Amino acid sequence: MQAENLAVEANRGLSLRPVTDADEPFVRELYASTRSEELAMVPWNDEQRSAFIEMQFKAQSNHYQQHFPGATHEIIVMNGADVGRLYVQRLEREIKIMDLTISPRERNTGIGRMVMHDILEEAGQLGKLVGIYVETFNPSKRFFERLGFKETEQSGVHVHLQWFPPEINYAE
């Protein structure tokens, strides 16, 4: 989030801070919240579910570190409470949202919209597009479409959504 936007966000109680090692339990819990519906359908006990979450969380973390080394990993804070995570890679022509997850108790309260407003404002000022991959069945797909993202590609259960600032000439 750009510095000039932080002052505006502070008035709304929203801020971002870098993820630290101390945040790992919170970040793991956020990750688990994204898999809860899926795991409710498997006949595993709590220990098996926990082991699966741990394995998948580590795999995701390793993937992000390996494939997105310059990305920012931030905790979303609202009124002093940690409420989500935002992982973003800023490239020359694109801002890639690797992960935007809001805690279940804070979903649908406008926090994600505020975070995305600032990202889209930044992208618009810089003439960059914004992209994210989501699963076709993920409710966040509708969220991004309401923000003006368009589907540009589908691969298996994942769809690539992009937001294009109006001044970019895409014919190039």
CATH class: Alpha Beta
Largest beta-sheet details: 7 strands, mixed
Kindly give the count of domains: 1
Task: Give the distance, in angstroms, between the N- and C-terminal Cα atoms.
Answer: 28 Å
CATH architecture: 3-Layer(aba) Sandwich
Structure report:
- With 172 residues, the chain is of the alpha+beta class.
- It is built from five helices and seven strands.
- The longest helix is centred in the first third of the chain and has 22 residues, at 46-67.
- The model is unreliable at 6-11 (pLDDT under 50).
Features:
single chain; 172 residues; alpha+beta; Aminopeptidase; 7-stranded mixed beta sheet; 5 helices
Strand and helix layout:
Blueprint: H1 3-12, E1 14-18, H2 24-40, H3 46-67, E2 72-78, E3 81-90, E4 94-102, H4 111-126, E5 129-135, H5 140-146, E6 150-155, E7 158-163
Parallel strand pairs: 4-5
Antiparallel strand pairs: 1-2, 2-3, 3-4, 5-7, 6-7
In short:
With 172 residues, the protein is α+β, with helices and mostly antiparallel strands. The protein has helices spanning 3-12, 24-40, 46-67, 111-126, 140-146; strands at 14-18, 72-78, 81-90, 94-102, 129-135, 150-155, 158-163.
